[in-house]
Amino acid sequence: MIESHKLKKREGYLEKLIGFQDTELVKVITGIRRCGKSSLLRLMIQHLQESGIQPEQIVEMNFESHDFRKMTSDDVYDFVKARIIPGKRMYLFFDELQRIEAWEDAVNSFRVDFDCDIYVTGSNAYLLSSEYSTYLSGRCVEIKILPLSFREFLYFHDFEVRETSSALGGMRKQVWDKKGERYELREIFDAYMRFGGMPGLADVGLDQEKALALLEGIYSTVVIRDILEREKRRGRRQITDPVLLRKIILFLADNIGNNVSVSSIGNTLTDEGLMEGEKRKGRPSPHTVQAYINALQESYFFYEIKRFDIKGKEYLRTLGKYYIVDIGLRNYLLGFRNRDSGHAIENVVYFELLRRGYDVSIGKIGNAEVDFIAATAEDKVYIQVTQSMQSEDVRKRELAPLQKIQDNYEKIVLSLDPGLDSSYDGIKSLNLIDWLLE
User: Are 302 and 293 in contact (CB under 8 A)?
Assistant: First the structure.
């Protein structure tokens, strides 16, 4: 078990969890493996103990542990029941609960039979799919965890950003590590773009060999436990081909930010000879490819983003795009080389917008495309992402779609090299790294 004092806090998620403490809702924490769900449970337990809850009022079960892996839902119920203290409120923590068949029966019984507050984690969206929601509809709240943002990456790796005077007047940001070494902020951002935001990297350090070993472990666990094993447990036989699964993962990883259709994936795999060498007849059907993509989305490996017609004010059924949950995993899959960094920074911006609570879609206006429409109930922002705004051609290309939008919501271009102008006709030009640090 991780020692509590070593845990780094992820304030936003913890505050959300504390906000739902002692409500009757079951708190369900979801996200890809090793993105910090178990640590969030430990932080919550630490918070309860600091606020006067006795250790015996807390029951913890981690279903990845050998002690609990063979349990049935009845065994889980009996284990908890034996630890209930009459007259006391109990706090129940279940880590990776999706491994237990019919787990929702046990959770529902705890709600009915005991005075308790329930916290659950899962690495698969199947946990919250239709079968589950019929049991607990309206009685659970989902807290979605992502790998570290750039700000969290700095904090987890003990980097501190300080402003220093620049030779040209004004201020510039630089970074110090805990040994007192100084770095340019861009160097640290490049490390984030290379290694990604998996919290475990803070334990092994920013070393390519160790990072690869960590990322490989995460990848294998997601593929084997959350996709292939889970299919067997559900008695489904759709996703049985590990080779095809890997091909589809590599295709999506290589095509983040590109418009992708299910039929185009099957065609590309066949045309590029990626399906040869195995005993296969022809190309995989769109239905098969879609089942594999759904499994990758359910395990929080890839996220799909839909297109929105800004003029017609409706979602389009045509091509969406996919982004990978962690840019480090992409580099592990495709090799650490500086490939299409434009799409890579777009990937980072997409997940930052999700962290900030926006609903995100791609904007279509006429034949032009806006990278992201980020909306909340009260607000909307249009965002273009590009490597640099220095060249006149790039500026025209990036600004044109935003200039076509007639409403008064904020319009922003984010780039690593914004040039000297901070706005063009009311469209803000911001430094991407500064925006990530906001």
Answer: yes
Rounded average pLDDT over 336-365: 92
33: its two tokens = 């493996």
Distance CA 163, CA 395 (A): 29
Cα 74 to Cα 70, 71, 110, 278, 308: the distances in Å are 11, 8, 11, 43, 46
Counted residue by residue, the chain has a size of 438
For the whole model, what pTM was predicted?
Answer: 0.93
CA dihedral 118, 123, 124, 125 (to 10 degrees): 60
Using left for φ > 0, alpha for ψ between -120 and 50, and beta otherwise, residue 257 falls in left
Per-residue pLDDT band at 137 (split at 50, 70, 90):
low
The percent of residues in the chain predicted with pLDDT above 70, rounded, is 92
Pairing of strands 26-30, 58-62: unpaired
Is residue 232 within 8 Å of residue 224, measured between CB atoms?
A: no
**Packing angle, helices 37-50 and 11-19, rounded to 10:** 60
pLDDT of residue 280: 53
As to burial, measured by CB atoms within 10 angstroms (0-12 exposed, 13-18 middle, 19+ buried), residue 20 is middle
Express each pLDDT in 59-101 by its tens digit.
999 999 999 988 999 999 999 999 999 999 999 999 999 888 8
- pLDDT tens digits, 242-261: 999 999 999 999 999 999 98
Provide the sign of the torsion angle of the four alpha carbons 421, 423, 427, 432, taken in this order.
Answer: positive
Contact 357, 347 (CB under 8 A): no
The CATH architecture one would assign to domain 4-144 is 3-Layer(aba) Sandwich (3.40)
Q: Using 50, 70 and 90 to split pLDDT, how confident is the model at 125? A: confident
Would you state the pLDDT for residue 157? 97
Domain boundaries, the chain: 4-144, 208-437
Biggest alpha carbon–alpha carbon distance for the chain: 72
| DSSP state for residue 338 in the 8-state scheme | -
Burial 44-66 (b: 16+ CB within 10 A, else e): bbeebeeeebeeebbbbbbbeee
pLDDT tens for each residue of 66-76: 999 889 999 99
186: tokens are 């861009």
Q: What is the C-alpha to C-alpha distance for residues 215 and 56, in angstroms, rounded to an integer? A: 36
